[in-house]
Amino acid sequence: MADHESGAAVAATLMYAEASEAGATIARFLDRNRDTLAMLGARLRALSPAMVVTCARGSSDHAATYAKYMVETLLGVPTVSAAFSTVSLYDAHPAQVDAGASTLCIAISQSGRSPDLLATVERQRASGALVVALVNDETSPLADVADILLPLCAGPEKSVAATKSYIASLAGIAAIVAAWRDDDALRADLAALPALVDIAFALDWSSVTRGLQDATNLFLVSRGYGLAIAQEAALKLKETCGLHGEAFSSAEVRHGPMAIVQAGFSVIAFDTGGVAGEDVRALADTFAERGARVWLASHADASHPAIERLPALAVSPELAPIVMIASFYRMVNALALARGYDPDQPPYLAKVTRTR
Ligand SMILES: N[C@@H]1[C@@H](O)[C@H](O)[C@@H](COP(=O)(O)O)O[C@@H]1O
């Protein structure tokens, strides 16, 4: 493994230490919340919510993207992201939920402290929604306001950039879906996740670290269940590396943005398997043919010869994003240092941001 991926400075950051605990965090989450999840599953099957509303910011909102794809695909329930300003600035009131059409509100937050998130969750609750909170800080106001609390069990997360709490949030969403569907196969796959996340964290993505050292911008592309990690990767590149990354689905990028993907333009493509992965790989081939610099994280066999491959584990498409982002986190910590940034203390950012 290259020095800048394995050297002492790289492993000395809080971000590295916290990201390396992601597998253990998932194991703690599943263990601690087993009974609550079983109770929640039964309650959701009885309630049969007509809609899910997600409340989150930043990395946590990318976990909400994952919730949208998981819930809409595996449960068929429309899942929308709450726009906090409608409540916190414009004082909007969500329509009162009647007994026949319940709403499930899923709030996701490491800190559980942003006022606009709290205002929106409180109003969802007042309108009759069942509020489930995936939150790391159990002393937070969000933990208090929730009907059902699912602690993320990540322990203290001090690096400004969220890592283990994001991975735990993704696993938490998959666990809610498994409980709601009473899906033994998904539960079994979840139980195997901690070990896979540990293995993924050790994979060598150092060709990206070398290739993006002097980059100024790039696209991050995935699709379906994987879109959430393309969004998360783009945020991490901004937060920790001062690098402008923009995330798109491999469908959306074809509707205009790809006009700027020309020779030399950088793209990281996340193939998280299944039919969505096929589309991501086809797009990666198209971009490589144009002369773009394309990294493809994938466990599939073939791709365009110019594509730089990043190792990935064979995991079900539903859970592959949770595993793949662990490999990205290790790489992006090293990239931040290589670019002269401290990934734990990005300029202008705080660990807990309170927006109104
Ligand atoms: N810099 C952090 C982000 O990394 C984090 O994702 C966001 C959401 O935080 P929380 O999950 O605590 O609500 O807050 C801050 O802005």
From TrEMBL:
The keyword Repeat applies. It holds the Pfam family SIS. InterPro entries: GlmS/AgaS_SIS, GlmS/FrlB_SIS, SIS_dom, SIS_dom_sf. Residues 40-186, 208-346 form the SIS domain. Keywords: Aminotransferase, Repeat, Transferase. SUPFAM superfamilies: SIS domain. It comes from the Bacteria. GO terms for molecular function: carbohydrate derivative binding; transaminase activity. CDD domains: SIS_GlmS_GlmD_1, SIS_GlmS_GlmD_2. One of its GO terms (biological process) is carbohydrate derivative metabolic process. The keyword Repeat applies. This is SIS domain-containing protein.
